[in-house]
Design a protein that fits this description.
This protein has helices at 7-24, 40-47, 100-110; strands spanning 2-5, 30-36, 54-63, 74-78, 88-96, 116-124, 137-141, 147-148, 164-166. By secondary structure, it is an alpha/beta fold. Bound molecules: inosinic acid and magnesium ion.
Length: 168
């Protein structure tokens, strides 16, 4: 395993994102929607640095087909418990890869008529994109490599690493 970002690098980037998001959403109350399980650590750190009131909810998605990335068919296996109509919603995810997961979730949540719907990811692998989707906020843009740590797993392992590592 090779270290890509040390804990300090990650925390610095989380602070930067939080500052930008805090400016953009100043004066609002925002519902953070974390995508389980990968986003739980990023959401925990990011949310504690936001300068506006937040509520939180979580959704769990499954994509058919095992392996290292989504197959293209996604479904909600644990839905939100919050009514979205009229709310400012910010989807929080660990990483965008093919884009299939986020594109699907945005489509599903838009149908519930939030006042606004934006997304933030800590990591972006743009070279892997299969569908057109660009998150509103991105921490790090990385090459096509499989990463673990800071919520990201391989077979449920490594989520608790404070930095981000390339698995090889
Ligand atoms: P997408 O639908 O292909 O964009 O995949 C998004 C999801 O796949 C992420 O939320 C992760 O759960 C998982 N994923 C994609 N790339 C990686 C990676 O490098 N490490 C760990 N999980 C990943
Ligand atoms: Mg995920």
């Amino acid at each position: 395993m090779k270290r890509l970002f040390a804990e300090e690098d990650v925390q610095r980037q989380v602070r930067r994102l939080a500052r930008k998001i805090s400016r953009d959403f100043a004066g609002r109350e925002v519902l953070l929607v974390g995508i389980l399980k990968g986003a739980f650590i990023f959401l925990a750190d990011l949310s504690r640095r936001l300068a506006f009131p937040v509520k939180m909810d979580f959704v769990r998605l499954a994509s058919y087909g095992a392996g290292r990335s989504s197959s293209g068919k996604v479904r909600i296996t644990k839905d939100l418990e919050t009514f979205l109509q009229g709310k400012d919603v910010l989807i929080v995810d660990d990483i965008i890869d093919t884009g299939v997961t986020l594109k699907y979730l945005v489509r599903r949540l838009k149908a519930r008529r939030p006042r606004s719907l934006k997304s933030v990811v800590l990591l972006d692998k743009p070279s892997r994109r299969k569908v057109r989707f660009q998150p509103d906020y991105v921490g790090f843009t990385i090459e096509d490599q499989f990463v673990v740590g800071y919520g990201l797993d391989f077979n449920e392992e490594y989520r608790n690493l404070p930095g981000i590592y390339v698995l090889k």
